[in-house]
Specification:
Layout: H1 7-20, H2 35-44, E1 83-90, E2 93-103, E3 112-117, H3 126-132, E4 136-137, E5 146-147, E6 157-161, H4 180-196, E7 203-209, H5 212-225, E8 233-240, H6 247-266, H7 270-282, H8 285-292, H9 316-327, H10 367-372, H11 409-417, E9 420-425, H12 433-441, E10 444-445, E11 448-449, E12 457-461, H13 469-474, E13 485-493, E14 496-501, H14 508-511, H15 513-523
Helix pairs in contact: 4-5, 5-11, 6-7, 6-9, 6-12
Bound molecules: 2-acetamido-2-deoxy-beta-D-glucopyranose (NAG) (12 copies).
Length: 530
């Protein structure tokens, strides 16, 4: 998730409104689950196994305090070996640390760790754990938790970390004014983690989404600085719908062609679309795309900064965002093909609106869940909090003073690993695919600027539908769901893989888990193409 700064005001205001209107009153009394409902969902669970002590790969005297025996409302059969809790930055001082969930691969053991960060800035990586690439999935509109058959835990050891300090349960005051500081703290945490779990000589992969498009390259870069392949053998990185380049401006630049192509799902009227087309020209956006969207690029893009106060008529992305809610109150900037109803969300945040069914509190804010996960019971957990960057300004006004990663740290990570994947969901309206592509075309890595050829090779997804297979069978439609086919476009040059993902918004592992599974197979070196 990536929120424009001004959205925090809206968020706080809507939270206050929710509280004032008493919507929270029955939250603490009910969980929304009857014993019969739990029995039903156990009966429906198709996968899962218990992990006897002997099968636990990482269970020792040092780790047992983090071991998760069971989770409220999650059938025991869903549980595999899993650890969570807080590990401090400095083991002799617990005032600052990171809350993590570690889940070893379900399947043959591997000597590798994949780290996942959500964005915001200020949003918890437990979103990824619970709704994107984790094994236990309780996502938008799901009445009860399920096993996610496309979990990355099928492939690798996963480590979700609430980042930077101040997010979720990670203790300490938010002090970051740039990307370097939290990355340095992460390095300390990760050393401690490896000591506690007796891990060394693992391959390390750093992944994330949205604002983590900044975290991932800076954390990976800090790992390279360690000169320590025993603990920091960085082997690849992946970012989804990333905040790289001049991302706010790139959204303004790219939004009109997006509307032109996808207005069938947004429903703007003809005169509004024409007004956007006019201003797309008047503001110089059409011309800019013509000049700079080239393969290979024929120039460096000039620095861009959109001053929306001085130039409100050219603030096209924010205007589209505001107007979309009128046409469709269930407008979801992260997945704009959704219509009403607004989906219930066990994490309380199914679009930019704060919502769940009454009686379904944010899962990680429940006292029983906090206890089960070794989280501090006195910390109020919210999916997104902030601000977690506390400087004034920064290149994109997020209180984060670090340079755009494209200008140094990301090229270095590509050159060091030759295995970096940048991907965007074609339907994402939060970070537009062509904005991300413009950003890549302004980056120089492994000796050249940008991609030399336009992406054109299809991504063909042959993984069958495992999740709903049985429902298709029992509905008499067995087999119709077996094959997805062409689900995107890939392109590889000089260590960088690009993937556009069709039929996906912002949270790709949530919306196109099979494509994401494929991305991970590539990242981990199990295949050479997508
Ligand atoms: C684990 O702790 C127990 C109890 O303190 C002790 O008896 C045992 O030797 C320890 N095991 C190891 C491998 O250190
Ligand atoms: C870790 O914390 C201890 C206790 O507060 C302090 O003495 C020590 O200097 C800290 N270490 C580092 C590297 O900051
Ligand atoms: C993931 O593992 C489960 C077993 O735990 C299996 O049922 C499922 O098919 C696997 N998914 C994929 C995509 O291979
Ligand atoms: C966080 O900041 C508050 C007020 O600024 C202060 O009272 C508190 O001690 C700080 N907490 C830590 C862990 O530094
Ligand atoms: C740590 O792992 C090594 C093998 O990687 C093993 O030999 C050693 O016994 C382990 N130590 C503990 C305390 O589990
Ligand atoms: C890593 O190596 C570089 C170049 O040799 C050196 O400048 C840097 O200080 C080293 N870093 C650490 C943490 O030792
Ligand atoms: C580091 O990982 C690479 C794969 O990314 C592997 O080829 C290499 O052997 C590893 N190095 C060490 C020292 O483990
Ligand atoms: C993205 O850019 C490509 C190449 O310029 C163009 O063909 C395509 O229509 C654009 N798509 C959108 C959704 O803007
Ligand atoms: C790049 O080349 C195209 C023609 O291939 C041209 O239209 C455009 O003006 C050029 N852009 C720059 C910045 O030179
Ligand atoms: C393109 O890259 C140059 C050089 O790194 C940088 O100065 C400029 O700000 C970038 N342009 C955009 C639009 O990000
Ligand atoms: C944006 O424009 C307003 C009004 O013209 C001006 O006061 C402000 O300084 C500008 N902000 C920046 C960062 O240039
Ligand atoms: C989390 O729980 C606390 C205490 O029960 C409550 O005050 C707070 O409003 C809850 N937060 C959310 C986002 O529901």
């Amino acid at each position: 998730m990536k929120l424009p700064t001004w959205n925090w005001l809206t968020l706080v205001a809507s939270l206050l409104l929710t509280v004032a209107s008493g919507n929270h009153r029955d939250v603490s009394h009910r969980r929304g689950f009857t014993p019969q409902a739990l029995e039903d969902l156990r009966a429906r669970s198709l996968y899962g196994r218990d992990t006897p002590v002997a099968d636990r790969l990482y269970y020792t005297n040092a780790t047992k305090e983090y071991f998760v025996e069971s989770l409220p409302d999650i059938p025991k059969s869903f549980m595999t070996e899993m650890y969570s809790g807080i590990i401090p930055v400095n083991m002799s001082d617990d005032s600052r640390g990171f809350f993590y969930v570690f889940q070893p691969r379900v399947g043959p053991p591997v000597k590798e760790i994949t780290i996942w960060f959500n964005g915001g800035p200020g949003c918890s990586s437990l979103e990824g754990f619970f709704q994107e690439n984790g094994r236990i999935q309780w996502s938008w509109g799901q009445y009860s938790p399920q096993i996610n058959p496309y979990s990355w835990v099928n492939l690798t050891n996963m480590l979700w970390v609430e980042y930077p300090i101040g997010v979720g349960f990670s203790p300490g005051n938010a002090t970051a004014i740039n990307e370097e500081e939290p990355a340095a703290e992460f390095i300390q945490f990760f050393k401690n983690f490896q000591t506690i779990f007796n891990i060394s000589d693992y391959k390390i992969y750093v992944t994330g989404e949205s604002y983590a498009g900044r975290y991932v390259p800076y954390v990976a870069n800090a790992m390279l600085d360690q000169n320590d392949t025993t603990h920091f053998n960085l082997s690849g990185a992946l970012v989804y719908d990333p905040c790289i380049g001049s991302f706010d401006y790139a959204n303004a630049l790219s939004v009109y062609p997006f509307i032109e192509q996808y207005n069938n799902i947004l429903g703007f009227n003809h005169s509004y679309v024409s007004s956007l087309a006019d201003r797309d020209k008047k503001c110089g956006y059409a011309e800019y795309r013509k000049e700079y969207m080239h393969f290979p690029p024929n120039a460096t893009q000039p620095p861009l900064y959109l001053n929306s106060t001085a130039d409100p008529d050219c603030d096209l992305w924010n205007e589209v965002y505001d107007n979309a809610y009128g046409v469709n109150p269930c407008f979801n900037v992260y997945e704009p093909n959704l219509q009403c109803p607004l989906l219930s969300d066990p994490l309380g945040f199914p679009s930019d609106l704060i919502y769940s069914y009454p009686g379904l509190p944010p899962y990680f804010n429940r006292t029983d869940v906090k206890k089960a996960m070794h989280a501090p019971v006195t910390t109020d957990w919210e999916l997104c909090t902030g601000p977690v960057f506390v400087a004034d300004g920064g290149p994109e006004d997020y209180g984060d003073l670090s340079a755009d990663p494209l200008q140094g740290v990301l090229p270095r990570v590509i050159e060091a690993t030759n295995r970096v994947l940048i991907s965007n969901g074609a339907l994402d309206l939060e970070i537009l695919t062509n904005g991300t592509m413009l950003a890549i075309q302004n980056m120089t890595w492994n000796g050249k600027q940008g991609f030399q050829k336009a992406p054109s090779k299809p991504i063909v997804i042959k993984i069958g539908d495992i999740q709903y297979e049985e429902v298709f069978e029992s509905s008499g439609l067995g087999g119709l769901d077996s094959y997805q086919g062409v689900m995107g476009v890939q392109h590889f040059e000089r260590g960088l893989m690009w993937a556009e993902t069709y039929l996906s918004g912002h949270m790709q592992p949530q919306f196109q888990p099979r494509s994401s599974f494929r991305h991970m197979q590539w990242l981990l070196g199990r295949t050479d193409a997508l």
